[in-house]
Amino acid sequence: MMKYPEVTSVGEVLIDFVSEMPSNDLSTAHSFIKMAGGAPANVAVGLAKLGIRTAFVGKVGDDSFGKFLRSELKRHGVNIKWLWTDPDHKTRLAFVALTHGGDRDFEFWEKDPADAHLRRNDVDFSAVCTSQVVHISSFLLLNRETRETAFELAKHGKKKARIISFDPNIRLSLWNDQKEALRHYRAMIRYATVLRMNDAEAKLLTGSSSLLVASRKLLAMGPRLVVITQDKKGCFFATKKFTGKANGFSVRAVDTTGCGDGFLAGLLAGIVRSEKEVDTLSFDDLMSICRSANAVGAIVATRHGAIAAMPSADQLKSFFRSQQ
Fold first, then answer.
1. CB–CB of 130/51 below 8 Å?
2. N-terminal to C-terminal alpha carbon distance within the chain
3. What is the pLDDT of residue 2?
4. Are 11 and 136 in contact (CB under 8 A)?
5. For position 253, what pLDDT does the model report?
6. What pairs with residue 59 in β-bridges?
7. Domains of the chain: which residue ranges?
8. Is the pLDDT of residue 80 over 60?
């Protein structure tokens, strides 16, 4: 009997060229290491390494980088039957400089990459929505073609009572108009069941620096669970029934690339394993799930890269033992 993916992640998979040595910014960085990345791909691999059956939907170019990415996703256990090759556009590239504090300065290189051409007829909505969770990338909102695909998928998933996961992952430098960007982010939030973002994004989207006020405004848009991350401080979670704070972990960060994606992988893995509807998760359920998600994010921060940094389930258990 075929087992369907428990989570399907939709969006971009790309090449991160990450600086080998810390620098002040990208202009002063020298040599770079090629790594697989892209937020929804990071989430997919993070889930697969935690033991969740995961598939990825997207496009890469018919080039060496695209072949490398296909190989990397498959090597990490992600089902790539819906990862298409676009013969007319190149794979998206990003150059990332790591600062001395482990933060990032980055620029995207391809202006019209393959992942920006994921059309509606590239996605079998019914098949994708056999998954319990459908995670939709915010990069799909950047242009009309992929935006139509993203919203059509979100509508289909909502109709099928699937969990729609969304992380705004806001990159205003990729937009011509900030107001337009925020309008599309808010429109997708209305379809989300699970919404994850950092505290800066929550303030940008709601106008409030209070996590409680911001979470209430976000919940009013439609999500059933809002989780706002605060780096090493942990995360704030909110449903219409209760709010809570799960403390983070103090680690020596060497590369913060993919920490939020690792957190989201841990969050979704916990929700899937709970075998509960999001509405029925208790305070204790969410505290435990968010604590585990914080740990995944913390582990990612101690390693270079994003996909390469995602921990396995055994490594996550070892991390918890070391903390105790």
1. no
2. 41
3. 52
4. yes
5. 85
6. 84
7. 40-92+116-323
8. yes
Residue 60: phi, psi to the nearest 5?
-130, 165
Of residues 98 and 133, which shows the higher confidence score? Answer: 133
Residue spans of alpha helices (H) in the chain: 39-49, 64-75, 125-128, 144-159, 178-189, 199-206, 211-221, 259-274, 283-301, 313-323
Q: Give the whole-angstrom CA distance, residue 50 versus residue 289.
A: 13
Per the DSSP assignment, residues forming a β-bridge with 93 are 15
Decide if pLDDT at 68 tops 50. Answer: yes
Report in angstroms the alpha-carbon separations of 130 from 90, 159, 197, 238: 30, 12, 26, 27
Q: What does the alpha-carbon distance between residue 208 and residue 210 come to, in Å, rounded to a whole number?
A: 5
Look at residue 1 in the predicted model and tell me its pLDDT.
41
292/311 Cα distance (integer angstroms): 12
Q: What is the CA radius of gyration of the chain?
A: 18
- Structure-block tokens of residue 308: 């390469």
Listed in sequence order, the residues at least 6 apart from 291 whose beta carbon sits closer than 8 Å to its beta carbon are 246, 247
pLDDT digits (tens, 9 = 90+) for 21-62: 878 788 888 889 899 999 999 999 999 999 999 999 999 999
Rounded Cα–Cα distance for residues 247 and 197 (Å): 16
What sign has the CA pseudo-torsion 43, 48, 52, 58?
A: positive
pLDDT digits (tens, 9 = 90+) for 264-299: 999 999 999 999 999 999 999 999 999 999 999 999
Rounded mean pLDDT of 148-157? 97
Task: Please count the other Cβ atoms lying within 10 Å of the Cβ belonging to residue 260.
Answer: 23
Second CATH level (architecture) for the domain 40-92+116-323: 3-Layer(aba) Sandwich (3.40)
Given the structure tokens 């929700």, which residue do they identify? 271
Nearest to 232 by CA among 263, 210, 264: 263
